[in-house]
Write a structure and sequence with these properties.
Rossmann fold; elongated
Length: 197
């Protein structure tokens, strides 16, 4: 028997989940599934961390759930980004997803197409974000901004020569030089390779 996570959410404490819950539990039972209800009361859909959602996602990751059923997509997530992240995780662990009102069922061929489309949209979104970041970094560099953390300190030509000399004569290790000169091992390695700015 499949285990079905019924996720219901209302935004205020005054609202009730009974209507969503009753219909979804009946739907799961008609399919021969064992329903387990996860209720979030007074929780905004915009919040990524919600007690019942977090509990359900733990069960999903532990493979204790076979299918997640929600009343409508906006009960699960309010943003496309969050919806894509959740459905990607469902797909990755082999959990089917049903949005009752939108008639989305990833256990069917049409539903699997929905997963594929959502996956493509997620990949497109990630690629667009990467492009925006790359463009922003390139623009900042063109405008003379230094990208990344500032070095802990700068080195004089004499200090660089001393570091190389001490390392060559095996008077100190990279770690020892980093401690002695108050910098990182990465910076000492760059000095030894002549790659520092």
């Amino acid at each position: 028997m499949k285990s079905a996570a019924i996720y219901v959410r209302v935004s205020t404490q005054e609202q009730e989940t009974e209507m969503q819950e009753g219909e979804l539990v009946e739907f799961a039972k008609r399919r021969g599934w064992h329903p387990q209800v996860f209720r979030d009361h007074g929780q905004s859909g915009a919040k990524e961390n919600r007690p019942a959602l977090d509990k359900m996602m733990t069960a999903v990751r532990q493979r204790k759930i076979d299918v997640v059923v929600v009343w409508a997509l906006d009960r699960l997530a309010r943003s496309l980004k969050q919806l894509l992240a959740l459905t990607e995780e469902f797909q990755r662990v082999g959990v089917d997803f049903i949005a009752f009102k939108q008639n989305i069922d990833t256990g069917s061929p049409a539903g699997r197409l929905t997963y594929a489309v959502l996956g493509a949209v997620a990949e497109f979104e990630r690629e667009m974000l990467r492009e925006r970041v790359r463009a922003g970094v390139a623009n900042a560099r063109r405008n003379g901004k230094v990208i990344g953390r500032k070095p802990l300190r700068t080195f004089t030509l004499t200090e660089k020569q001393l570091i190389r000399s001490q390392f060559k004569r095996k008077k100190a290790s990279v770690r020892g030089l980093a401690i002695r000169y108050g910098t990182t091992q990465w910076m000492i390695s760059r000095i030894l390779k002549g790659q520092e700015n």
